[in-house]
Amino acid sequence: MTRQIALLLLLTLNVNGVFAQDGIDDLGKSLIKDFLTDVFTLEGSFEQSLISAEGIITELTSGTMEIERPMRFRWSYTEPYEQWLVADGLNVWSYDLDLEQVTVKAQAKALANTPALLLSGSSDAIESFDFGGTFVEDSTTWVRLEPKDKNAAFNRIELGFIENQLLRMAFFDNLKQTTVVTFYDVKLNQQIKASRFKFIIPDGVDLIGTPVTSGTVDN
User: Fold this and answer.
1) Residue 32 is part of a domain; what is its CATH number?
2) Distances, alpha carbon 166 to alpha carbons 36, 43, 45, 108, in Å
3) Using one digit for the tens of pLDDT, what is the confidence trace for 169-207?
4) What is the CA radius of gyration of the chain?
5) Domain for residue 5, yes or no?
6) Over the chain, what is the mean pLDDT?
7) Is the Cα dihedral 61, 140, 87, 107 positive or negative?
8) Residue range of the domain that includes 69
9) How many domains, the chain?
10) Cβ neighbours of residue 64 under 8 Å, at least 6 residues apart?
């Protein structure tokens, strides 16, 4: 059994069960609160799996991530293809290096009611979600959150904490697909160069969309 399938089974063990006692729920709420208020930067590597409704892994990707809260991040996919996702506080840039194509969207609209908002947003990002409970499996404490916006592209997110550190995430979308992300070699609250969150369109690359050129960027 692959690690990704094992994790998927772990995440669904509680479907017909009862979430842990109130004390465990309090722990889950505390973990989320501490993450949103105490973590300013986050960097490391990741593995990401897309799992179909039938439980089949349809896509495996990996790379590195850098986050500076609020509202800046850089996800660099390296396998099986190279792609960058860069949020500078105003725009989200998606750069496909093989296609030599960049798509840009206004960040506020692109990230609204998404799991990315929890990772990169300010401490009040939690207000867009309802608490769905906490359960513990082996060494991982899983916290379930559900978007308040019923038109969101996913119906729940589960955050996995090991020794009080966020190391796993799972998103369950409206197509009954599951995206599982596992973080490795995580470093917290270390300075990241500002240039990592700026995107300059390379020469000869096609641009799709119009970037926002003014607004408020939190420092």
Assistant:
1) 2.50.20.10
2) 11, 12, 13, 24
3) 999 998 899 999 999 999 999 999 999 999 999 999 999
4) 17
5) no
6) 86
7) positive
8) 20-208
9) 1
10) 43, 44, 45, 46, 75, 76, 78
